[in-house]
């Protein structure tokens, strides 16, 4: 028995229905609408919709069909404040004799039923440009995914939908020019009801391909999730691309969102684009134009000063019975925007500005040529000024046992925690003087206790002094002095994440938010793509930096720098742009200047340390990362970079200590755990390295780098079959990994399969002809095959790219020594054959060549 088909055959409008969803939630109420796929239910004043795929059980009242109101008939009972507002509006309408309801006749947002809105389906065909490439493995993977998708669909297998989605993300990461992988991945996330992940993936696909279908699905997903701000932004972008009258249901939703949020800025931009399209598509038809102007009246209905402008033109359209000219509508839009500006209704929406900038490409110097906008990346090991916390809690040490060097603390909720002195970072005061009446404040992170018969359930993993909160507040004050209030507020938010009741941060934040808002009212925070002053150039520079357009960002910062020399954050932003474009000397100059102005600017220390790393100056890099840690010992990324620098200096024990601190701050940072295993390998501690990798793979079984590392460890242990197995698994998920291909060839050569190894090396070199290590491994493979001439050629190519590498020079010398006996043997064979008298014919010459070849192969 199919319980869904029974429900859809028996259920009728107005019957009472109770549904138990597959996630355990229960919804009940009277049926407003039901079809084969979904149902809409009204419970008092709450409207609910669900896909029938989510139904685990149901109960239907078959005896009675209740006489209930449809959603548009539900009477809203306003509270006292709402009644006052309604009275004011009614009085205004009576005085001005404005019949708003009449003017809105035919505009029916309440008629929209969400279940009638359908998202775009996934795409099963790969782009032609992709199919032209040599990507047979990806094409095979694609076909496999959609074959398994049919099984998931048939069985409504949520876990398989999730798994297939993740496979598509991996393919997208390998082919970053194609948004289709992320779009389809998002469609599968939607099938498994993972709305937050689906929304982000649809947006990611849109940033690559800028297709309206992608941004439409993002908006649909955020509506399902109840994330109205995100839905509004994405619908605004969608209707900047598509004509509203082709999708009235979604336009109604957009108008409702804009009206409820009072986000007139996003609505006005979308309306302007819609009116432009009207004159391109509709000509002088009156009904479509009337509909669009009604939209504006609906959104601005409660704002008299704007409403009157809209009423005038709408009345004119109705009275004249014809569409006004384009020039009249253009004047209307100008009046609308001017009135919004004058009345403080043009508050910019930063999220929409970013999407709108991506949509429009941002013009280059030649205004007819659009600059492609890459995907926004904020976590590329290059620090920007953003919210950064790692889950510490504030607590108080209330008892210590000095002889045994351990103690007890409790957090603000009174939960007790045990700790040992060795988890305390730096100096947190004189612990031994702590008593119940002399408690010491600190910040800590805890894990469940592993001790037997422990008196507390939690054990502190790491403890810091509360002075790191003071450091952040002091940095925030420095930013505020520069009038960089957004950066100052970010630092305060970091403080409040750890200490929500911090009195200083709580008092400073609203004050600075007010100053920033006041400053924006005067100077405007909207991005101007053709800046007229230093502030607008700076704003454009910051936006371009976020979009990854670094050269353009540098140019904008340079044009803004006349009066920006007192802003450490702007210097930091320009330094990041130089770093991204590998102009390291200019980047260091910017970071130096920023730190001269603001010595607590740990973001600049972090970025400068990365520059030093890129230049191979690991000593200076370490000095910078240590400065970051001194200000913010909770900075996980600084610990990771410090560990990497120690590793490059062959200080592996120090590297492991730094990796351990990063893992104490974030135990689930599997990449850091994988890097820690590499430090163990360098010390030849293969057992410890394997423990790390096995833990990573227990959580991320498809992590390509960790699969490769496990194969590398097996190779070091001379377990060649196991090594090959894991290296090949790694290549399944990352087929373009030159390092893994080279190591695979090396293992095959060691296993006595030189011909296969040579073919693998050919593939590796196709991917990267300029990699010195790849040429080195090609030499090694030929060396194992006994082809010393080709081995020497490959070693020479490696040394040409990267001269002076001792290992490569040593291998080349050994190959040359191996070649000498072979050449000597060939010469001796040639000399002996020359004494023979049967060399007169061509046939005899061919015999000689054959004999020489035989001698050569034998030797």
UniProtKB/TrEMBL annotation:
TPR repeats: 568-601, 602-635, 636-669, 704-737, 772-805
SUPFAM superfamilies in the record: TPR-like (SSF48452)
Annotated spans, Disordered: 819-846
Entry keyword DNA damage: no
Top-level lineage group: Archaea
Keywords: Repeat, TPR repeat
InterPro entries: TPR-like_helical_dom_sf (IPR011990), TPR_rpt (IPR019734), Ycf3 (IPR050498)
Entry keyword Magnesium: no
Protein name listed in UniProt: Tetratricopeptide repeat protein
Upper classification of the organism: Archaea, Methanobacteriati, Methanobacteriota, Stenosarchaea group, Methanomicrobia
């Amino acid at each position: 028995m199919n319980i869904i088909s029974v429900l859809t055959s028996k259920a009728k409008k107005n019957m009472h229905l109770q549904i138990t969803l597959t996630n355990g939630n229960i919804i009940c109420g009277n049926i407003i609408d039901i079809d084969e796929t979904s149902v809409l239910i009204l419970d008092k004043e709450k409207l609910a919709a669900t896909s029938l795929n989510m139904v685990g059980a149901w109960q239907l009242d078959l005896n009675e069909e209740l006489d209930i109101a449809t959603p548009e008939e539900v009477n809203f009972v306003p509270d006292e404040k709402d009644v006052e507002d309604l009275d004011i509006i009614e009085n205004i309408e009576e005085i001005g004799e404005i019949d708003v309801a009449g003017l809105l006749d035919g505009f029916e947002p309440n008629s929209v039923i969400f279940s009638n809105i359908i998202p775009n389906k996934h795409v099963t065909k790969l782009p032609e440009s992709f199919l032209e490439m040599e990507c047979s493995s990806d094409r095979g993977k694609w076909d496999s995914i959609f074959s398994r998708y049919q099984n998931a669909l048939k069985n409504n297998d949520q876990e398989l939908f999730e798994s297939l989605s993740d496979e598509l993300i991996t393919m997208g990461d390998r082919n970053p020019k194609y948004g289709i992988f992320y779009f389809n991945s998002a469609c599968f996330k939607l099938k498994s009801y993972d709305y937050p992940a689906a929304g982000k993936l649809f947006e990611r696909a849109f940033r690559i391909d800028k297709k309206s279908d992608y941004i439409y699905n993002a908006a649909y997903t955020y509506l399902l999730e109840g994330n109205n701000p995100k839905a509004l932004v994405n619908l605004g972008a969608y209707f900047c691309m598509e004509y509203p009258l082709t999708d009235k249901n979604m336009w109604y939703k957009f108008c409702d969102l804009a009206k409820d949020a009072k986000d007139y800025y996003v609505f006005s931009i979308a309306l302007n684009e819609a009116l432009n399209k009207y004159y391109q598509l509709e000509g002088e038809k009156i009904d479509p134009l009337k509909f669009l102007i009604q939209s504006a009246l609906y959104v601005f209905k409660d704002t008299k000063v704007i409403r009157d402008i809209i009423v005038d033109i709408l009345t004119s359209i109705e009275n004249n019975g014809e569409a006004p000219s384009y020039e009249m509508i253009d004047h209307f839009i100008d009046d609308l925007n001017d009135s919004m500006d004058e009345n403080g209704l043009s508050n910019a929406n930063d999220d929409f500005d970013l999407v709108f900038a991506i949509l429009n490409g941002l013009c280059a110097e030649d205004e007819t040529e659009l600059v492609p906008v890459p995907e926004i990346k904020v976590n590329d090991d290059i620090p920007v000024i953003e919210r950064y916390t790692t889950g510490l809690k504030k607590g108080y040490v209330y008892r210590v046992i000095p002889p045994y060097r351990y103690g007890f603390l409790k957090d603000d909720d009174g939960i007790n925690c045990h700790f040992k002195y060795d988890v305390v970072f730096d100096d947190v005061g004189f612990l031994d003087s702590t008593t119940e009446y002399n408690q010491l404040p600190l910040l800590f992170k805890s894990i469940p206790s592993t001790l037997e018969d422990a008196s507390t359930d939690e054990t502190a993993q790491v403890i810091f002094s509360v002075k790191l909160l003071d450091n952040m507040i002091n940095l925030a004050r420095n930013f505020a002095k520069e009038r960089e209030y957004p950066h100052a507020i970010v630092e305060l938010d970091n403080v409040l994440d750890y200490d929500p009741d911090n009195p200083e941060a709580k008092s400073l934040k609203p004050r600075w938010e007010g100053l920033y808002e006041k400053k924006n009212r005067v100077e405007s925070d909207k991005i101007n793509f053709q800046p007229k002053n230093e502030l607008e150039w700076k704003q454009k520079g910051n936006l371009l930096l976020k979009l990854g357009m670094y050269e353009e960002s540098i140019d904008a910062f340079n044009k803004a720098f006349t009066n920006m020399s007192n802003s450490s954050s702007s210097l930091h932003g320009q330094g990041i742009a130089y770093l991204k474009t590998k102009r390291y000397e200019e980047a260091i100059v910017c970071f130096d200047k920023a730190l001269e102005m603001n010595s607590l600017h740990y973001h600049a220390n972090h970025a400068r340390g990365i520059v030093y790393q890129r230049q191979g100056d690991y000593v200076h890099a370490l000095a910078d990362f240590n400065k970051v840690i001194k200000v913010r010992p909770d900075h996980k990324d600084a610990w990771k970079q410090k560990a990497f620098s120690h590793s490059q200096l062959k200080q592996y024990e120090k590297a492991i200590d730094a990796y351990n601190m990063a893992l104490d701050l974030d135990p689930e940072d599997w990449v850091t755990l994988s890097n820690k295993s590499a430090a163990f390998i360098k010390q030849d501690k293969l057992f410890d390295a394997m423990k790390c990798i096995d833990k990573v793979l227990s959580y991320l079984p498809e992590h390509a780098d960790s699969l490769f590392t496990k194969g590398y460890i097996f190779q070091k242990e001379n377990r060649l079959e196991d090594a090959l197995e894991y290296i090949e698994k790694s290549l399944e998920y990352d087929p373009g990994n030159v390092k893994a291909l080279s190591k695979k060839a090396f293992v095959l050569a060691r296993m006595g399969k030189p011909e296969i190894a040579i073919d693998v090396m050919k593939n590796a070199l196709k991917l990267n002809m300029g990699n010195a290590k790849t040429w080195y491994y090609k030499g090694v493979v030929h060396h194992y095959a006994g082809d010393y001439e080709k081995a020497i050629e490959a070693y020479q190519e490696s040394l040409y790219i990267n001269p002076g590498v001792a290992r490569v020079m040593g291998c080349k010398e050994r190959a040359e020594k191996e070649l000498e006996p072979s050449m000597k043997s060939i010469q001796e064979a040639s000399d002996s054959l020359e004494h023979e008298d049967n060399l007169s014919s061509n046939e005899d010459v061919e015999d000689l060549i054959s004999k020489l070849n035989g001698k050569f192969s034998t030797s």
